[in-house]
Design brief:
With 185 residues, this protein is α+β, with helices and mostly antiparallel strands. The chain has two domains: 37 residues, no CATH class; 142 residues, Nucleoside Triphosphate Pyrophosphohydrolase (Alpha-Beta Complex). 17% of the residues lie in helices and 41% in strands. The protein contains three helices and eleven strands; from the N terminus they run βββββββαβββαβα. The strands form three sheets. It has a four-stranded mixed β-sheet, with helices on one face. Strand 5 and strand 6 form a beta hairpin. The longest helix has 13 residues. It is globular. The relative contact order is 0.18.
């Protein structure tokens, strides 16, 4: 392996483990991972009206609401070990947004913050959306659903940032084209 870190072969030590995360150390590196090998499914859902379906949810670690793509954990329910990312994505999309997709397309696996967290997520594109409920998540999630015209994503993000909301890094997927074309600073 090229450029392998000198700590790569050091033994790994678990420093703390909770129900959902584990703090680990390998050599001088400290990082966290999801407990029990749980991963996440993140959904890119665009309506027939070319609106991106986003969610807003208060995030305790940030101390404020965060604007995000709909997402959820894979295999976090009792008896769901080995759950397929597409199955989890279908469930989470409906719970959080009230939309059902005819099909899900996997766009690949990505890592959130690879210098600090081992967590990966599968990015999925929802196709053939139909509204089947109000969304809002499961009890206690208090999710607000936003429908944002794709062309208005940069303005929406700027407005929400000005209100003090956090913006999930995965929204870079939607902001990058405008930045690369020089449409926003």
């Amino acid at each position: 392996m090229p450029n392998r870190d000198t700590d790569a072969d050091a033994p790994e030590h678990i420093r703390w483990q909770g129900k959902f995360i584990t703090a680990r150390q390998r050599g001088r590196w400290e990082y966290v991972s999801r407990a029990r090998g749980i991963r996440a499914a993140v959904i890119l859902a665009i309506t027939d009206a070319d609106e991106v379906v986003l969610v807003e949810q208060y995030r305790v670690p940030l101390g404020r609401p965060c604007i995000e793509l709909p997402a959820g954990l894979i295999g976090d329910h009792e008896g769901s070990a080995g759950e397929d990312p597409l199955t989890a994505a279908m469930r989470e999309l409906e719970e959080e947004t009230g939309y059902r997709a005819d099909r899900m397309e996997s766009l690949g696996e990505f890592w959130s913050s690879p210098g600090m967290v081992t967590e990966s997520f599968t990015l999925l594109r929802a196709h053939g959306l139909s509204r089947v409920g109000p969304g809002g998540g499961t009890e206690g999630e208090n999710i607000t659903v936003h429908h944002v015209p794709r062309h208005a994503i940069p303005r929406f993000v700027a407005e929400r940032r000005a209100l003090g909301d956090a913006i999930d890094v995965k929204l870079l997927l939607l902001l990058a084209p405008a930045w690369l074309d020089g449409q926003i600073d």
